[in-house]
Amino acid sequence: MKYTSRWQGLQIDAEGEGISPELSKDVNLVGTLLGQSIRTVAGNSSFEKVENSRTLCKKAYQNGEEESRQKVIDSFKDLDEREIDWLLRSFTSFFHLVNKAEQIEIIRINRRREQQADSEHPRTESIMEAVSEFHRQGLRSEEAVDVLKKLDIQPTLTAHPTEARRRSILHLQQNIAEHLVDLSSQDLTLDERDELMTSLYHKISIILTTDDVRPSRLSVEDEVRNSLYFLRSSIWETIPRLYRDLRNAFETYYGVVPELPRIIKYRTWIGGDRDGNPYVKADVTRLAQKYQRYTALSLYENRLDELWRELSISSRQIDTPERLQQSIDRDLELLPEYVPTMKQYWHEPYRVKISCILEKVRRLIRWNEGESNRPEWHPERYQPKDLLADLNTIKKSLLDCGFEDLAHRGMLADLIAQVETFGYRMAAMDIRQHSRVFEHVTGELLRLAGVVEDYSDLDDQQRCEVLSTELTNPRPLVSPDTELTDTSRELLDTFAVIRESLQIDPESIGSVIVSMTHERSDLLEVLLIAKQMQLWQYRDGKAESLIDVVPLFETIEDLRNSSTLMSELFEDPVYSAQLDA
Fold first, then answer.
1. H helix intervals, 274-348
2. I need a labelling partner for 481 at 20 to 30 A (CA). Which of 115, 238, 271, 557 fits?
3. Are the beta carbons of 470 and 446 closer than 8 angstroms?
4. 436-489 residue pLDDT tens
5. Is 545 in contact with 579 (CB distance < 8 Å)?
6. Cα(285)–Cα(292) distance, rounded to whole angstroms?
7. Are 430 and 269 in contact (CB under 8 A)?
C-alpha cells in the first residue's frame, strides 16, 4: 500500500506474523509513523536506540535464548536518563497504539462473523444466538422475556490505580482509532487519504509527547470525571445497541417486538468509597453526584434536541392522538410562560411535547448548577420515572398513529433505553465505610442519648439487643444540632447526602457497604444511623428502608465465618424486616 504526497513511498504491507493482514498493516502503519515522530522530536540518536532495543527484544522473544536476553539487558546499561525516558515513552506510546489496533481488529472480526451469520446460524456468543436458543428449546416469547427479567447485570466502576491514564490520552487514542477505521475505507480519494494520514501522524506525535500519567495523585474529583468519560461515550452509545439487538432477535425468532425489561445498569465506587481514602468526604460525594446528574441531563438534552428534529409530524397531515394532546395541555398548564414560544409549532404536536420535556430537563440542569433554587424546579418534582412517562406517551402516540418502526426502532426507543439505564445518575453510587467507623458513631449517638455509656464494652449479643430496641423505637437519638465529634458529624453528613440524592433519583445510591464486617451488629449499626437520618424506620413489625446495607467479608476468618453470620442476620427480626423492605 502506498500513499501520495508527503506519504509517497510509505510501505506498510502485512508481514504475516500469525495475525490478520489488516491488523498487521495497522500495526506497521502506527509503528512507522511513531518511528518517524520519534526521529523528528527526539532526534536520530534516540530513534536508533529505540529501534535497536526493539530489534533486540524481538530476537530475544523469538529464539528464547538466555544470551539474547542478556544482550537486551546490556543494551540498557549505558543509557543516560534522557535516553531511558525516550525509550520508555516510545514503547508506552507503541503499546497504546497497538492496543487500539487490536480493538479495531476485534470489531472487524465480529463484523465479518455477523455478515456471514443468518437466522439458522447466528453469530456465536451473540444476543441473536441466545434468543435463538430460547426458541429452539420451545420457550414462548413471554417465557423468554421472563428469563430476561431474572437478569441483573451491574458492572461497577472503580478508581483502580492501574487505570491511571489521563483523559487527554484517552481522547487521543479514540481519535487514532477513528482514523485507522477511516483509512480502511475503499472510497477515499487520494487527497482524503493524505489528509487522514497527516492527521494520524499529528495525533501520534502528540500522544508521544503528552504525559501519560499525571505528575501528582489524581484527586477524587478527577477520578469521577475519568469515570464519566467512559459512561458518557462508549457505555452511553452501547446501551441502545444492546436493546436493539434484543428487539431484532425477538422479531427474528418470534415475530414480535415485546416490551423488554431493563437487564443492565451501572454502579460506581468513585466518590463514595471512603474506606482508606481520607479525601472522600460528604462534600466530595455530593459533588460527584452533581457531576453525574449534569452528565445525564446534558446527554438527555442533546438527544431530545435530535428527537425534536426527527419528529416533525404535522397535525395537518395526520390526526393528533388524544393522549398526546392531553399530555401537552397538562405541560403547558405547568409552563404557562412557555406557551407563547410554542405558537409557531401548534401544528407539530410531537415537537411541542418534546419542547416541553426539554424545558423541564433544562430547568433541572439550571437547578443542578445552582442557577435556580425555585422549589418547582427541584428534580423531586420531575424524576426519571416522570421523564420516562413523558417519553412513553410519545411512544404510545406514535403506535396509535401506526408508526411502529419509529416507536420501536427509532431514536425515541434508544432514548427510553438510556433513561431506564442511567436515570439522573449515570451509575448508582455505592457508599463504602469501615465497620469501626459505624461502631464509633453508633457508640457516640447511644451515649449522648443516655442509652449506654460505653457501647464498645458490650459483646455482639448485647450490642444487638440494644440496637434492636432502639431500631424499633421511633424517636431519634439526638437532635440535628447536637454537637458531635468530627468522625460522627462527617458520617451523618454523608447520610444526609444519601437522602438528598435519593430524593432526586431513587436509584442514585446503590448500597451502603460495610467493609471489614465481623459481627451481626456491624449491619444493625448502619440501620440505626440510617434511622437517625430519616432513611429507615420501623412500624407495626415492618421496616421502611431507602437503602440497602451490604456486608463485605475481607479476612480469611471472616470469610470462613460468613455462612454462620449470614444465617444469624437472616434470622434476626430487624434485619429480616430490612431485607423485606
1. 282-310, 322-334, 339-342
2. 271
3. yes
4. 999 999 999 999 999 999 999 999 999 999 999 999 999 999 999 999 999 999
5. no
6. 11
7. yes
* H helical segments located in 117-140: 127-136
Q: What is the pLDDT of residue 163?
A: 52
- Write the DSSP assignment of 498-526 as a string of letters: HHHHHHH-TTSEEEEEEET--STHHHHHH
| 160 pLDDT more than 80 | no
Q: What is the pLDDT of residue 146?
A: 96
Grid cell locating 412: 425515541
pTM for this one?
Answer: 0.82
Residue 297: which of 363, 385, 375, 224 has the closest Cα?
Answer: 363
Phi first, then psi: give them for residue 262, nearest 5 degrees.
-80, 120
- Closest C-alpha to 488, from 496, 288, 270: 496
- Letter for the amino acid at 81? E
Q: What are 38's three cell numbers?
A: 520519534
pLDDT at 94 over 80: yes
| Nearest by Cα to 12 from 169, 193, 170, 171 | 193
What's the CA dihedral at 73, 74, 77, 80 to 10 degrees?
Answer: -90
Does the structure show a pLDDT above 90 at 210? no
Axis crossing angle, helix 460-471 with helix 573-580, rounded to the nearest 10: 50
Cβ density class 417-444: b for 16+ within 10 Å, e for less: bbbbbbbbbbbbbbbbbbbebbbbbbbb
Residue located via cell numbers 446534558: 298
What is the mean predicted confidence (pLDDT) over 268-279?
87
Helices (H), 381-434: 384-400, 404-409, 411-422
Percent of the chain with pLDDT over 70: 94
Residues sharing a CB contact under 8 Å with residue 173, sequence separation 6 or more, in sequence order: 96, 99, 100, 207
Whole-angstrom distance, CA of residue 196 vs CA of residue 322: 52
User: Three-class SS of residue 545?
Assistant: strand
Structural contact between residues 163 and 218, judged by C-beta atoms closer than 8 angstroms: no
Mean pLDDT of 188-216: 83
Closest residue by Cα to residue 267 from 155, 161, 421 = 155
Q: Check pLDDT > 80 for residue 420.
A: yes
Q: How far, in Å, CA of 129 to CA of 245, rounded? A: 11
Do 448 and 528 contact (CB within 8 A), yes or no? no
Give the Å distances, CA to CA, from 439 to 375, 444, 561, 567, 571.
37, 9, 20, 22, 22
